[in-house]
Amino acid sequence: NLKSDSKVFMSYRKKQIIERHRHRYEFNNDYIKLFEQKGFRCVGINPKSNLVEIMELENHPWFIGVQFHPEYKSTVVKPHPLFIDFVKAAINN
Checking DSSP bridges between strand 64-66 and strand 52-57, what pairing results, if any? Predict the structure, then answer.
């Protein structure tokens, strides 16, 4: 589930997404408040596990961290929306 006021939501243009995972690491939810105090926002939460899947750094043109592999869904003909908006942010900044 994506927060509707996030950069990631603006990339996907939808509230719920499905992405492929291939990792053994999880964000420790005990640290959410500490990260948020330092300017990070937890903007993508897995509804099944309640774990953070996507974080953004506030007041930054494009600082996004994900726990999945957007490259698995990206092709030359249809690039992943996060890649498209990353390039746009790089051009604009």
Answer: antiparallel
In angstroms, rounded to a whole number, what is the distance separating the alpha carbons of residues 28 and 47?
Answer: 15
pTM to 2 decimal places:
0.89
pLDDT one-digit tens code per residue, 2-54: 999 999 999 999 999 999 877 778 899 999 999 999 999 999 999 998 999 99
Q: What is the per-residue pLDDT across 76-93, written as a single tens digit (0 to 9) for each?
A: 999 999 999 999 999 999
What is the identity of the amino acid at 78? K
Taking alpha carbons only, the member of 57, 66, 64, 55 closest to residue 25 is: 66
Give CA separation, 64 vs 60, 70, 77, 88, in Å: 9, 12, 23, 14
Spatial strand order in the sheet of 40-45: 40-45, 52-57, 64-66
Alpha carbons 25 and 60: distance in angstroms, whole number: 25
